[in-house]
Amino acid sequence: MKFLRKMFTAMSLGALATVSLPAQNGAPRIIRIDNPKMTVFLPPTSAATGRAVVDLPGGGYSHLATGHEGFDWVPYFNGMGIAYAVVEYTLPAGNRELPYKDATDAIKKMREHASEWGIKTDDIGIMGSSAGGHLATTVATHADTTARPDFQILFYPVISMKDEITHGGSRKSLLGEKPSEADILEYSNELKVTADTPPAIILLSDDDKGVVPANSLRYYEALHQAGVPASMVIYPSGGHGWGYKPSFKYHDAMLNQLKEWLTGF
Predict the structure, then answer these.
(1) Of 15, 51, 201, 219, which has the most beta carbons under 10 Å away?
(2) pLDDT of residue 16
(3) DSSP characters for 182-238?
(4) Around 7, how many Cα atoms within 13 Å sit in the side-chain half-sphere?
(5) Are 67 and 103 in contact (CB under 8 A)?
(6) Whole-angstrom Cα distance, residue 263 to residue 207?
(7) pLDDT tens by residue, 16-51
């Protein structure tokens, strides 16, 4: 995947372009979109299930971890016949609407091209890690039906903006030094769950000191209370930010558990 990232950096692409690569072991068709900035990896047509995942890497709303929380996941999802898109969303830098617009536009773009790309319009999920998990849950709880995903995959997500459990860096980057109480409540996504919020799986480590597990626990409880199907897996160790890293002790177990969840509906 490093080769692909280098190639994209070196090429000047239009607003919507298909990049043709030599076919190797059923390599995916790759589509680069500039607005929002995302790369779509389509599995071979013969293996496609019609499902799609739109990924939002983490990085505290100050940078993007596009490797282990982004492009490194391509073979995993495409191997299951799932289309996979990595969104390099705009960092807020004082404008909290920018990342949200990129994320919702990405979902809309997937639905707009669903027929062309072999995607089912009602089977498009959102995935986010850390601060990307906050953005994913913001879309899941705030967007209207045109941009609301059909399921959520969340890795050690930031959920709340409340003082006692939030990730300070993410809140500062998104809401500023001194956010208002109204903004804190608006972006504490555990408070925004309704019966229309899509089903979710949440994966995290018990010893995460970067984003405390209470974020995930509160979101899971809110989903449960709203009658939204939700699963949560808490690994005993691993800390924060493991994503697709093979060095994560429970890497293989995590991949298997996620696959079981994805094939369960």
Answers:
(1) 219
(2) 52
(3) HHHHHT-GGGS--TTSPPEEEEEETT-SSS-THHHHHHHHHHHHTT--EEEEEESS-
(4) 11
(5) no
(6) 29
(7) 544 434 334 567 899 999 999 999 999 999 999 999
| SS3 state at 101 | helix
Other CB atoms within a 10 A radius of the CB of residue 38 amount to 23
Identify the three-state secondary structure at position 80: coil
Q: 61's torsion region: left (phi>0), alpha (psi -120 to 50) or beta?
A: left
H or E element in which residue 131 lies: helix 131-142
DSSP H/E element including 39? strand 37-42
For 38, phi and psi rounded to 5 degrees? Answer: -150, 155
Instruction: Say if residues 50 and 43 touch (Cβ distance below 8 Å).
Output: no
CA 146, CA 235: separation in Å to the nearest integer?
Answer: 34
Distance (Å, whole) CA 31 – CA 47: 18
Reference 56, options 69, 43, 68, 67; nearest CA is 69
Q: Which amino acid is at 21?
A: L
Q: What is the pLDDT of residues 100-154, one digit of tens each?
A: 999 999 999 999 999 999 999 999 999 999 999 999 999 999 999 999 999 999 9
Q: What is the mean pLDDT of the chain?
A: 91
**pLDDT on residue 94:** 83
